[in-house]
């Protein structure tokens, strides 16, 4: 028994800690789709910290029905958020969304036609949009008050994202955790800058 512990003890301790941390502290997730372009790309692999405190503009993973989705927190519990021609107001204060600058500029230039050259449906959606961020009816001005205990989540690629505009807010229990680190592809290995 002593020899077994001497030879395998450290390995078993490491594996036990690894498994416990996977159960309680972190999980890995694969980005599925283009709703977080250009911040996160389809197929990227991420580490998600389950015990992180969720703040506005954090990128989170949430449970939606039987799938995990990656979105950005825009509205916190109790917030009133409004959009008016791509300008975000939170509780009466205008807030910049600098992470949208690349796609908003491309939308202003050619309605994202060059960006979406890989997908005809995306091009059609962009051509029919009157702003980069609209509600499900295409309105460029809309408001929502986020219920207590809920979060309003949006994808960074507002034209193609299915998010809280379509499916409603997400309960705190539906938020799995905050995206902290990208480990695949190796060329983009590193922390996620979400603000």
UniProtKB/TrEMBL annotation:
Signal peptide: none annotated. It is an enzyme of class 3 (hydrolase). It is a single-pass type II membrane protein. It comes from the Bacteria. Its main location: membrane. Keywords: Hydrolase, Membrane, Protease, Transmembrane, Transmembrane helix. The chain crosses the membrane at residues 7-27. The keyword Transmembrane helix applies. Residues 6-184 form the Peptidase S26 domain. It is found in: Cell membrane; Membrane. The keyword Lipid metabolism does not apply. GO terms for molecular function: signal peptidase activity. It catalyses: Cleavage of hydrophobic, N-terminal signal or leader sequences from secreted and periplasmic proteins. Its EC number is 3.4.21.89. Belongs to the peptidase S26 family. This is Signal peptidase I. It comes from Streptococcus caprae. The gene is lepB.
